[in-house]
Amino acid sequence: MSNPTPAALFAAFFRIGVTSFGGGLVAYLRDEIVTNKQWMTPEEFLAALEIGQTLPGLNSVNVAIIAGRKLCGPAGAIAAASGLVIPGALILVALGLLYERFHKNPDVAAALVGIAAAAVGLLLQVTLKIGAKQFLNPLDLFFVLLTFVLVALFHVSLPVVLFLVAPFAIILRRPRKPKASA
Amino acid sequence: MRELVSLLNVFCLLSLLAVGGGSAVLPQMEHETVTVHQWVSATDFATIYSLGQMAPGPNMTMVGLIGYKAAGMAGMLVVLLAFYLPSSFLTYAASHIWDTFKDNPWRDSVQAGMAPITIGLMLAGVYAVGKTASFSPEHSLHFNAITCGVGLAVTGILFAKHINPALLILAGGFVGWFFLKGV
Questions:
Q1: How far apart are the C-alpha atoms of A61 and A25, rounded to whole Å?
Q2: What tens digit of pLDDT does each residue of A110-142 get?
Q3: For B50, which of A115, A134, A175 is closest by C-beta distance?
Q4: Where are the domains of chain A?
């Protein structure tokens, strides 16, 4: 199987960038890269996703960077990530201009209130779903609530939380000594 | 020009702090863009965030609109590059050397330890957007009941049914238009 050109990568990711309404981008990426184009094996994709989730940045963009690099080097990484981001950015420019123009219109203002309220519900659902395991584990729940209180209520800045709280959270999860091998 | 540099500074830092995805930096982003630099109002921030949920592609691309409000097209470009490039460079470099760490047991520790912090940050993100979008003391009880109700309904429906969230966001817009027009 020959590797795609940067143009082919751009086209494939652009298509995802146009059609992926409603989030869940990683699933769209997997369908395209693994199932349709067969550019990566499921294992390779999972490895890319693990890196993408561990490092800072959006998981979907990180996966695009890794997949692009694997398939086509630096040009591939640029092609994949920009293909993914550009369509949404253009649509947002249009939405933003409409917002500027019409946000004082009472119909639009009322609809926007409902849209924002619904978006909060979506974020809450994603948080509860991803965090189901953490909410049920007492130690994890302690760190969830500690982080929430520090950031939301006391406005402690994010770097402070990451460099002060995270080390404790990680140390408490340190690797256990492997069981003596039989 | 000074505004562009401020945008660059704020969003590059947010890019590198976005552990566990973009939602984790929402509270910090809200604080920086609304309270500290006043590029957007709290209501703008909530609306821009929700517009991001309606557009295709990575929904954090909405940061571009904050840049647009602060400094026009140049602001949008600066913010998009500032928000996506640093983390992308890091990922690019790390995917080269990843194999070295693949079997290191500390990697699991980092992931397990960071998970609750990411969730706590996302919860703080719900709070940061929700304190204007869902419940605000400026509005009547009726108004707040509807905004909170829409949010909780979306949460409940998404747990009960597999449905495209973008449709629910649009439905929320319809409910808002129907019940809250002129309130």
A1: 9
A2: 999 999 999 999 999 989 988 888 999 999 999
A3: A115
A4: 6-105
